[in-house]
Q: What sequence folds into this?
């Protein structure tokens, strides 16, 4: 079958389950053929060899069953870097790129050109590696309690030439010394009984990186309570949280003694990030 025919077939099969069936189909076929999407559009009449067509159809079937494209490809773009991702890690999302942008601003304000930064719950290494790539003079440490996730982060660091990022296995601040000018985290923040945990891409992602107690605030409470002691005076704590936690998280930060507490909206207009400064 030709490229055009395979894509049409795939789009028809994905329309019921994907919000972007054409994009998904093109990404999967480009990966199968070792080409890019522009090449697919330039040569739609090219015939695809049977083994490759079979592999592509298998990938489409997995996508139709709900499996995320990023896991099928094994990679995703994030900020200015490309990352390997596996079912051991979350798939980095666009709103977390906004968290990185704010972290770059705060890290520079707190530590000038040589900030010391800690990324809690790094997963694939997305935040830590994006910061290290953007700020070569920063000292970046990343921690996670999942050895499988840290293995992915280590592979990403090596591929990007960012081995200077220190990876640490442990729960939140356990075993860390510090202090840091900036602590940043995209922690678990979904309520354990939230029905969205079983829907769409989220249903395939590691639950431990998503759910945090009955109200989704368990990890955020600990970050707020323990974080200030690991900051230099004037250092910042910055976290991502749920769209409906824009009132609760600032209260946690204020109760922990942080100053200049502020919540920012993401590009969709949702309250998504909260920051606070150690006096």
A:
């Amino acid at each position: 079958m030709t490229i055009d025919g395979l894509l049409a077939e795939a789009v028809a099969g994905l329309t019921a389950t994907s919000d972007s069936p054409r994009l998904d189909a093109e990404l999967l076929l480009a990966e199968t053929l070792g080409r890019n999407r522009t090449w697919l559009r330039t040569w739609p009449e090219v015939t695809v060899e049977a083994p490759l067509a079979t592999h592509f159809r298998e990938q489409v079937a997995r996508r139709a069953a709900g499996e995320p494209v990023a896991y099928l490809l094994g990679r995703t773009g994030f900020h200015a870097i490309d990352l390997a991702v596996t079912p051991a890690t979350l798939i980095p999302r666009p709103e977390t790129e906004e968290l990185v942008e704010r972290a770059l601003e705060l890290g520079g304000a707190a530590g000038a050109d040589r900030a010391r930064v800690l990324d809690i719950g790094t997963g694939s290494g997305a935040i830590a590696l994006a910061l290290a790539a953007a700020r070569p003079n920063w000292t970046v440490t990343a921690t996670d309690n999942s050895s499988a996730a840290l293995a992915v982060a280590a592979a990403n660091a090596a591929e990007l030439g960012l081995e200077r990022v220190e990876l640490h296995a442990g729960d939140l601040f356990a075993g860390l010394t510090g202090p840091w000018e900036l602590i940043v985290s995209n922690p678990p923040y979904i309520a354990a009984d939230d029905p969205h945990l079983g829907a769409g891409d989220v249903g395939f992602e590691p639950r431990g990186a998503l759910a945090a107690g009955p109200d989704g605030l368990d990890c955020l409470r600990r970050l707020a309570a323990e974080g200030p002691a690991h900051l230099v005076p004037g250092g910042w704590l910055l976290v991502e949280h749920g769209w409906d936690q824009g009132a609760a998280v600032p209260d946690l930060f204020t109760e922990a003694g942080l100053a200049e507490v502020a919540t920012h909206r993401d590009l969709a207009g949702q309250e998504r990030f909260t920051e606070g400064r150690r006096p």
Remarks:
- Residues 139 and 172 are 18 Å apart (CA to CA).
- The chain has two domains: 3-66, 87-277.
- The longest helix spans residues 94-111.
- The mean pLDDT is 94.
